[in-house]
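Fig. S4 source data, part A: sequence.
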Amino acid sequence: MLGMAIGYVAKLHNINMGCIMSKARTQKQRRETAISAVLESACALFGELGYQAASLEQIADRAGMTIRPIYHYFGNKEKLFLAVVEQVEQQLHRAMRDIQTGRQGEDLGQYWEVFMRFGRDRHFRQIVLVDAPVVLGRERWADSPVVQQVIAILLPLFPGLLPQTRHLIAQMVIAALTEVAMCLAEPGNEGKERAFEEMSGLIRMRLGSTLSHSVLE
């Protein structure tokens, strides 16, 4: 009799634990779904309207929820924007990381083309290149994984220079790439597609010759 009672209690315990774990999984899934919906909505509106014009009310409405979950998961508008920026930058970081290792000169040209492909996307430009430096500070962009990745790619092109000089040159190249992306996006820029193709060819050729020269030295 005692054994049956113990078995019954154990069975009830297992059932309760299963219900608790199932409930926890459901809560986690709801949380992940809500966060994903907020980020998707925020990315779209920050990209379309800009940081200042996009409101949390608009973001919540587009995500199909009230504003309360946004405050619960992200705290405020700036923290939500930071999460969006990090998500968008991570997409570029992965795209650059996925470039297959081959002849390094060719790979450098591919890095350029990947960066420019992202730079021509208006959501990326508005979020990462226009608003992020103003809202979050230029120092954060300089220290971001994307910029650090680009610096690591560029530094081998300038052997023999002081580390500080090489780092400064890499930063200048990144600033130039950013400016090019913004210029190509300007409305009424006649022939910008052809200009982009010509510039891509020049960059690829120049990076390859620079690399060959640095290796020979």
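Fig. S4 source data, part B ends here. Residues 101-106, 210-217 have pLDDT under 50 and may be disordered.
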